[in-house]
Amino acid sequence: MVLSLNKAPDLARRRVGTALDETGLLCVTLLEGLRRTWDVRQWWGEFIEQCWFLARVTSVPVMLIAVPLGATISLQVGDIARQLGAASGTGALLVSAMVQQVAPLAAALLVSGVGGSAITSDMGARNIRDELSAMEVMGINPIHRLVTPRLWAGSTVSALLCSVVILAGVLGGYYFNVIQQGVSPGAFFDGSTTLLQFSDLLVTLFKAWVFGFIAAAVACYMGMNCDYGPVGVGRAVNKAVVVTSIIVFAVNYTIQMLYQVLVPPRF
Q1: What are the structural domain ranges in the chain?
Q2: Cβ(144)–Cβ(42) under 8 Å?
Q3: Cα–Cα distance between 24 and 30 in angstroms, integer?
């Protein structure tokens, strides 16, 4: 019993050290992937292919998620606003929530959960087949050739998906708030932008862009460093999705806190 208690601090230190090592290697992978961004001719074709793949696999799921989210926000906010006698403000609250918080998070999680899983499995399959080592033997840096286009594809598609999330969420909220709860369409759309500023949209696109980088970097890193065998690839996919979600929520909180301090919200 005493020996097991003495081993507990050592085990905790090893886990913390492993987590810090993996964080450092992840940052190195991200920075190394961005270092050769200027050499567009080397990765342009792969970038277009990855953008098309990510857009194809995420566009429909992101709409299927955004519509219920907008409907849920509209129902909850509409009930409260109607009790307060401010049912016409539901559109403003819905659009503000979709633009500032829901859109970048939904886009990033879809890019990570759908596209990132495919990226991790692809990189893991290349790893267990020793394709990455073969590229290094031929003098080709696998990070520059494979990771760089995926980083930019993930960030580009994540930023573009924000508009899809906002549109689908507003349509879902419009249906339940106007058709189901009886708010007039003019009142719903008239105040929809009263709580927003142009900088809110810019920050939303910036957050989605950063989240796309994070999702693609984590997916590539987990795939390139997975254990050999199908089990190792499966664990890497699961770990990539979980780690991306944690990092995205932490970064979102940090960016939103700084933005609210620097740019006061409109009332």
Answers
A1: 40-262
A2: yes
A3: 10
